[in-house]
Design brief:
188 residues, five-stranded mixed sheet, three-stranded antiparallel sheet, 19% helix, 29% strand, disordered N terminus
Length: 188
C-alpha cells in the first residue's frame, strides 16, 4: 500500500530535478487536477481520529463510502480511498485516474466516495468475497466491512472495481461514479 505513495514521491523528485523546479511545483505538474496544495502545517490524519463507513447505495454493486474527521484540526487523507476486496490482490482503480495526492479534511467534516465492485455482471471471471476493507490513508489498517453488513449475505461480487476520489458531498461522489460507463470501464 505504501508503494504508490513512494512511487509518486519519486516521480515528483525526478521531475523536480529534471526541470529545475521545486518539488511542490513538480507535484502540481504531475497532478494538475488536484486541489490546491495544503498549508505545510497540515499533517496526515491519525487513524484513530477518523470514522470510515461503507454502506449499500441502492444500486447494484455500488457502495457509498465516507470518512469523518473527529479531531479538532484539519488533516490530510489520501485523495483516493483505498478499497480492497477480501484476499484478492490489488485495489479499486480510481476514477478519474489520479496519482498520489492528498485531500484536506476539515475538523468535524466528512468526505464521500462511491465504489462500483462489478464492471460486467456476465463476466465469467467475477469473484465473490466475504468482506472489503476501506482506508483513508495507505498507512492505515483500514476498516473491514463484511458482505452481510453491506446487504450482500452471499458475498460481494467483484471484477475490475472502480472508486471515485473523496468528494465534499455524497451527490458529487455519485456523479463522479456515473461518469464512468455502465460496464465500469473508464471513459478516456
Amino acid at each position: 500500500m505504501l508503494t504508490r505513495t513512494v512511487l509518486a514521491a519519486s516521480a515528483t523528485a525526478l521531475l523536480a530535478s529534471a526541470t529545475g523546479v521545486s518539488a511542490a511545483a513538480a507535484s502540481t505538474e504531475l497532478h494538475p487536477a488536484r486541489p490546491a496544495a495544503a498549508p505545510a502545517a497540515l499533517k496526515p490524519c491519525a487513524e484513530k481520529t477518523l470514522t470510515v463507513k461503507a454502506a449499500p447505495s441502492g444500486q447494484d454493486h455500488v457502495l457509498r463510502l465516507s470518512v469523518k474527521n473527529h479531531s479538532s484540526r484539519a488533516c490530510l487523507v489520501e485523495r483516493v480511498p483505498l478499497v480492497t476486496y477480501g484476499d484478492l490482490d490489488g485495489a479499486a482503480v480510481p476514477f478519474p485516474l489520479s496519482g498520489s495526492s492528498t485531500y484536506k479534511l476539515d475538523a468535524g467534516k466528512t468526505a464521500h466516495a462511491a465504489v462500483r465492485s462489478l464492471s460486467a455482471s456476465g463476466d465469467s471471471d467475477t469473484r465473490s468475497v466475504g468482506y472489503i476493507e476501506v482506508a483513508a490513508n495507505p498507512e492505515h489498517h483500514g476498516k473491514k466491512f463484511t458482505a452481510a453488513s453491506l446487504s450482500e449475505p452471499g458475498g460481494l461480487r467483484v471484477w475490475s472495481p472502480v472508486t471515485t476520489l473523496w468528494q465534499p458531498t455524497r451527490a458529487l461522489a455519485d456523479e463522479a461514479l456515473a461518469e464512468s460507463d455502465g460496464a465500469g470501464v473508464l471513459k478516456v
